[in-house]
Amino acid sequence: MKKYDVFVIGSGMAGMTIANKCASKGLKVGITDELPYGGTCALRGCDPKKVIIGATEVRDFAIRLKDKGIDTVPNVNWRDIMAFKQSFVDAMPPKIEKGYRHNDIDTYHSSAKFLSKNTLQLGTDTIEADKIVIATGAKPRVLDFEGGYLALSSTDFLNLKELPQSLLFIGGGYIAFEFAHIAARCGADVTIVHRGKRPLENFEQDIVVHLINATKELGIKLVLATEVSKIEKRDNHYTVTGTTDGKEMTFRTETVFNSAGRQPAIFDLELDKSGIFFSKEGVAVNEYLQSASNPNVYAAGDATDSKGLPLTPVAVMEGHIVASNIIKGNTKKVSYPPMPSVVFTLPTLAAVGLTEAEAKSQKIEYQVNYNGVGNWFNAERLNVKEYAFKTIVDKEDHTILGAHLIGPNAEETINLFAIAIKTKMRINDLRTMIFSYPTLSSDIPYML
Hints:
Distance between the termini: 61 Å
Helix content: 25-40%
């Protein structure tokens, strides 16, 4: 049996942060991952997705400026962009493993299962550790209806050698919208089927409606309030069956993708053997990100039932907190700053802070500033139809409670709102700032 001071399950951004930080303080550390080192963001999520989006941004920009200085609209070469994407993905695991070796961290490539409160089974190896960290991230939610297993995952989409002529996405969250926009701009026929009446339910719906307009304008078919009940393989296509208001509908498509959300990747760890409390939301933790029931265990990232959003920067922050508490004892409590969240469609949708519904539920006296501003200079110079904002301001202290944007560079502008919320900057201070002009952020004073 091998013994460690710290053993980490999962080599995404949270696990990597914890392992390296603990090893740098002289602790004996081991880490395992049944998938290539790097985690979802670097290998199967945000990073490769953003590389692919880069090509579609060029095409989108050219379409908007066609006959306004641009004569030819380029096509996206799917094989070339996938090869470019893969150059980033392939480089990551060996780079990470080299870093572990440099820090004298023992590396394993196996799934882990708990045997007791502080022991693990990794293939033929048995591991004992003073502290065990669960940083296994999340994986696609299982589609538990007939033929659900036939749906491909977001990982499969990011590894398509050829783009299918038609694609159907089950679920109306950010994964569906981002990938649907990519596929549609590359010439595919795309459908999104969502069981709810509103897509992107966690975002401010006054802003989401603008994205819906842009999505339909792109030719994507958005089918709402439809519960998918069956997927059938028929020759060279799939038939997807759904129900709307008691009426059965069918959709024919070349490929089906499961974009119905993600769940913590913890249910194969045999947590019951370790006395770890958990739920469908993740491992139950206290304010130190320590297991609420097993003091030998900590958890970070998407595997954790915490107040942190499932975002890479949040996982990194939680990783630093866990590492600090392992090294120094429980001295650092988790406290979440404003967490910007982005839907990388074109136009981009971004949000930080409270929605209007959340402000109302907290009984805060607030003021809403909401407007579609497709007539502003920045929208007109870029020939963008959907440009809108919704800011929520505390009436008492005149600080920003929440900001919700859609439009070009929203993913960048939202960070300035995050700074303003965190520092409790008053709106008059923002209004009197000098911004470089003409930039998208120079519109901020007029959104208040």
